[in-house]
Amino acid sequence: MQRQLANMKQSLFDQGYLDEQFVQLEELQDDANPNFVEEVVTLYYRDSARLVQNIDQALEKSPLDFSKLDSYMHQLKGSCSSIGAKKVKSECTQFREYCRVGNGDGCKRSFQQLKKEYATLRKKLEVYFQ
Amino acid sequence: MGGSSKNEVQKISVLIVDDDPLVRRVEGMLLKRYGLETKAVANGKEAVDMFLAGNSYDLVLMDMEMPVMDGPKATRMLRGMGVSCMIVGVTARDDEAEKAAFVAAGLDFCWEKPLSAQGVVAILDDLTKKLL
């Protein structure tokens, strides 16, 4: 069982879903806070859901407010950094690049990819914490 | 340190200032692991209010972008009030000009988010030198 868990975790790192920050979180987990990592990940998905919705709504508007989009994405990127969500964070960076140059189609494409990575990571972490 | 009394070993006290509850939780846990006493608030105004209410801290970890009052403004206000404790900016912003402006607002220095164990050690090293 432990081995299965270790393999699952290693795979998340090998596939680039998680980075070193996740390890840091696990190192903070102890007997007094046995579910710390799961709690933090839950907090991440709860708070980031609001940001994802805001970005979705902002991308519906015309013309696009790139400054607002960038601000939302900066917040989301920060949250991703806090749990080590590497792929999602990378998509945040890509999105912000598109914002910087005012590429609305690029933003929309990038956000679709981001949502895919976000959902995939969520599923994988749900299995990991079961 | 943080209001010590005679014969009592006081923990280093830290005020975490960040609008992201996730960051407050993670940074709080990380600092507690190093034996630090922490208090967290959600924006610069709440941080200023803590000091106006007579609280003192050995260290403030200040986020840059926050609603109500951002990090640079809160830092300028705290320094203007005579707050001399260490204030470290913790930001994910990668714009060097923005970070330089943040430092110029009165930070001791800036550290990149997310705050790591290595970051805490570096900050504590600096803080220890400052307190001695």
UniProtKB/TrEMBL annotation, chain A:
Localization per record: Cytoplasm, Cytosol; Nucleus
PROSITE patterns recorded: HPT
GO molecular function annotation: histidine phosphotransfer kinase activity; protein histidine kinase binding
Name all HPt domain ranges. Answer: 33-130
Question: What is one GO cellular-component annotation here?
Answer: nucleus
Q: What is its main location?
A: cytoplasm
UniProtKB keywords = Cytokinin signaling pathway, Phosphoprotein, Two-component regulatory system
Question: Which residues are reported to carry the modification Phosphohistidine?
Answer: H74
Which InterPro entries does this one have?
AHP1-5/YPD1 (IPR045871), HPT_dom_sf (IPR036641), Sig_transdc_His_kin_Hpt_dom (IPR008207)
Per its database record, what is this protein's job?
A: Functions as a two-component phosphorelay mediators between cytokinin sensor histidine kinases and response regulators (B-type ARRs). Plays an important role in propagating cytokinin signal transduction.
Note on domains (UniProt): Histidine-containing phosphotransfer domain (HPt) contains an active histidine that mediates the phosphotransfer.
List the PANTHER family. Answer: HISTIDINE-CONTAINING PHOSPHOTRANSFER PROTEIN 4, PHOSPHORELAY INTERMEDIATE PROTEIN YPD1
Protein's recorded name? Histidine-containing phosphotransfer protein
From TrEMBL, chain B:
Q: Which residues form the Response regulatory domain?
A: 13-128
4-aspartylphosphate: which positions carry it? D63
**Which keywords are on file for this protein?**
Phosphoprotein
Keyword match Phosphoprotein: yes
Q: Which Gene3D superfamilies match?
A: 3.40.50.2300
Q: Which PROSITE patterns does the record cross-reference, listed alphabetically? A: RESPONSE_REGULATORY
- State the CDD domains in the record: REC_hyHK_CKI1_RcsC-like
InterPro entries the UniProt entry points to: CheY-like_superfamily, Sig_transdc_resp-reg_receiver, ST_Response_Regulator
Q: Which SMART domains match?
A: REC
Q: State the Gene Ontology BP annotations.
A: phosphorelay signal transduction system
Give the protein's recorded name. Answer: Response regulatory domain-containing protein
